[in-house]
Amino acid sequence: MNPTSPELKRLLLPILALVLLVGAGVALIWWSKQVLADAKRQLSIVGADRAQNTQRLLRIADEEREVKEKIAVYRRLKDLGILGRERRLEWADAMKRIRSDHGLIDLRYRVEPQKALVSVAGKPGSIDFYSSTMKVSVALLHEEDLFTFLTELRNSGNAYYAVKRCTLNRTGVPPTAANLAARLRAECDIDLITIIDQGAKS
């Protein structure tokens, strides 16, 4: 059956509407794909920014922890009196107190002139380390007295005490009931190390 002209005229509008709807559907699908691709790109950019910000926050947290650790070390060094110029009067007071507190029979010492330590690896540019060697000769009743002396000296602060050498010799004098004679004599070389920050404000 062949459609007549009036029938074609009646079908023309629905066909045109169908073509328009199919075209609109295709355009809508294309637009949806573009929107989805843009959204994926935006999501990727946001993800990259988020990852970058997370890395920044982790670096900031690490730096903050490192700064706190350095501040804690600095405060500890300051409390011990290691920072700044050497404190010879405080060293003398500490030796006097240790001799008195522990009843050391004979304690003699001499502090040599201060020297710069030039081979400190990894030190910051404005930080300088100095050492003064203290030569100590002390009479002892017992070996334990030497360890007590060194512990007390280290705990007294005012420097970092690095024991370079200690020798123990018997005196050969036997103790008697009336006279507690020292049985040992220790000869020690102890480096008293101080730290000076040349860049710090006075």
Walk me through what this model shows.
The protein has 202 residues and is of the alpha+beta class. The radius of gyration is 42 Å and the shape is rod-shaped. It has 2 domains: 1-80; 88-197, Alpha-Beta Plaits, CATH 3.30.70. Helices cover 51% and strands 23% of the residues. Strands 1, 2, 3, 4 and 5 form a 5-stranded antiparallel sheet that branches.
CATH fold topology of the largest domain: Alpha-Beta Plaits
Topology as a string of helices (H) and strands (E)? HHEEEHEE
Number of DSSP strand runs: 5
CATH superfamily of the largest domain: Ribosomal protein S6/Translation elongation factor EF1B
- Residues in helices, as a percent range: 40-55%
Structural class: alpha+beta
Distance between the termini: 111 Å
Strand content: 15-25%
Q: Count helical runs.
A: 3
| Oligomeric composition of the shown chains | single chain
Radius of gyration: 42 Å
Q: Tell me, briefly, the overall form.
A: rod-shaped
CATH architecture of the largest domain: 2-Layer Sandwich
Q: How many domain modules?
A: 2
The average pLDDT value, as a whole number, equals 82
CATH class of the largest domain: Alpha Beta
